[in-house]
Amino acid sequence: MKDIRDAILAGEFADVGGLEVPETYQGVTVRAEDTDMFEGLETKEKDPRRSLHLDDVPVPELGPGEALVAVMASAINYNTVWTSIFEPLSTFNFLKRYGKTSPLAKRHDLPYHVVGSDLAGVVVRTGPGVNNWKAGDQVVAHCLSVELESPDGHSDTMMDPEQRIWGFETNFGGLAELALVKSNQLMPKPDHLTWEEAASPGLVNSTAYRQLVSRNGADMKQGDVVLIWGASGGLGSYATQFALNGGATPVCVVSSPEKAEICKAMGADLVIDRNAEGYKFWSDPQTQDPKEWKRFGAKIRELTGGEDPDIVFEHPGRETFGASTYVARKGGTIATCASTSGYMHEYDNRYLWMNLKRIVGSHFANYREAFEANRLVAKGMIHPTLSRVYPLAETGQAAYDVHQNTHQGKVGVLGLAPEEGLGVTNPEKREKFIDGINRFRGV
To answer: Global pTM?
Structure first.
C-alpha cells in the first residue's frame, strides 16, 4: 500500500494502475464472534471502541463492473454505529443473505465485516465491463449497491429488490485502505476539497437531497417552510443548506446555543433550541403529551409569522414523530428516514388523515440523485460539514462520538492520507468557498 499511497501523494495518478496491489490491506471490522458482546446492555452503554477493530484482511477478488479504490479518507455514519453495536440486528445477517444471491456475492459472507459507507480516493483497478472509469481517477463513492436484474429498479434504482447499502449491507466498505465498489457508485471528487472533506458529504448529502429536494421525497419548492430536526447534525446540516440554496425557509431545531450559532452561520434565521425551550414530547416512556406538540407548533408560528411547516425533515423518529405529524401544515409532508431515537413511531392519526398530510419514507438516494448532490458540492453551492477527523486506528472513538451525539456535522476518518489538508487540486476555487468549507471545523 505504501507505493500506491506515495504515488497518490506525489500526484502521479496515471502511475497508480501500474503498481502492484498487495495481498492484504488494513480495514476497520466487526467480527462475527463478537455479536453477543453487548448482550444485556442499554443501547447507549454499548461502546463501538470495543467492537471495532483495525485488522489486516485479504484484498477481495475484483468482479465484473467493479472497481478497487485506494481510500484516502472516509467518514462515520450512523449505520456504522448500528453495525458496531449490533443493532437492530447483526449485519452478518445481511452479509449471509447477500452471499446466497450469487457465487460472486458469496465473497461478502465472511466472519468479519469491513465497514464504512463513505470514501474519497483513487481508482486502482477496474473489472471487466467498466468503461467510464480507469485507474488513477480521483473519485468519491455513494453507497447504493444494486444488481438491476429486476425491472423494478429501472425507473428508480432504490426500488431494486437487491438494493443494499455498501459497507453496511455489503462487505469491503470505506473505513479501510482499500474498498471494493461497483463502478456505478463512483463520482468525480470535487477538486477544491481535501480528501477528508470530499469523503464526508457522501451518504448524508445524498440522503438529504432525496428526502428533501427530489420528487421521490418531499419535492421542496421555493418559499416552502421546512422544519429540520437536528439541523446542525450530519443529515440536518445538509438539509439546512438545501433549504437555503433552494429558496425555502428552514426552521432549525437544535439542542444547544452552540448548535444554534452554527445554523445561523449557515444563513438560517429561524432557530429553536429545544433544550432551552424545555420541550418534553413524552410525559413518560409510553405516553406522549399533545400539549407539548401544541406549544412547539406555537413557537414555529411565532418564528414564521403564523405559518406551519410545508415539510418536516424527520429523522430522530420515535422521540419527535408525534410532534412532527402534528405541526406540519394542512396538506403538508413529513419526510422520514433513520429513526435514530427509535423505530416504533406513534402519532395521532386524526392530525394526519383529517388534515390531508402525507408521510413519505425516504432511504438514501439513487445514482442520479447522489450525482446531483455531489455536483452541488463540486460547484461550491453545498459545503462539507466536517467538524473533526480521526486516524483510521481511532475509528472506534470516532463512532463513539457519533453514538453519544457529542459531535457536530460529520466526523471524518483518514485512510491512506497521512494527515489532513491533502488532495486539493483547485486551490483558486477553494479560496472562494473557504469560509463555508471550514464552518464546522473544530466545533
So the answer is: 0.95
